[in-house]
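This follows on from our talk about sequence and fold. Can you supply me with one protein entry, sequence and fold together? Could you add the entry underneath, on a fresh line?
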Amino acid sequence: MIEMHDVWKIYPNGVSALNGINVKIDRGEFVYVVGPSGAGKSTFIKLMYREVKPTKGTIFVNGFNVERLKERKIPLMRRQIGVVFQDFKLLPQLTAAENVAFAMEVIEAPRRKIKQRVKEVMELVGLGDKLNQFPNQLSGGEQQRVAVARALVNHPAVIIADEPTGNLDPETSWDIMQLFSKINDQGTTIVMATHNKEIVNTMKRRVIAVEGGKIVRDERQGAYGYED
């Protein structure tokens, strides 16, 4: 599903965020990316959906050669990737259903298909009764569920999540993680950057630890491995 070969990222200010990364993530895996602040986790994540380009190296995501992708092909690749952020990134003027539908509208899906699929994913994330609520009428956990529904709506092969529980209380964080686990059980690959030590240690998934721009640990049923 995802492969990186000798990937480097050096920003224009000279900061070397990633130094010779090599990694392979198989279809259907659930992978945590952990490490101290400034270790390179966010760059690692952003490279996968072409938010940033590598300085050197090769990246493949679901068959796409990411760093060689022509600009006009980037939207096609991103349709196969769902991205979930820490701060939800919902459009405040749209209802929950409209936020989710927007991801299908931009690829010009038929209106009837949009309506049906939005209802399906909103029910999957437990918000079938909140379709017409605006973001400011929803709790933080509910807003993140809408964000997850939006990430899911186009049947992505992989979901990339960057600190998705960072703004949530512990109980709500667990609810969101159970949702991600359910999505993974249905076959979707999940790659998640997180600082949530308790969740990583309890859920026992693959853990990739990044420090100083390098992968220093890659464990099949790993632990967080850092003190708070």
The radius of gyration is 17 Å. Residues 27-46+76-219 form a domain with the Rossmann fold fold (CATH 3.40.50.300).
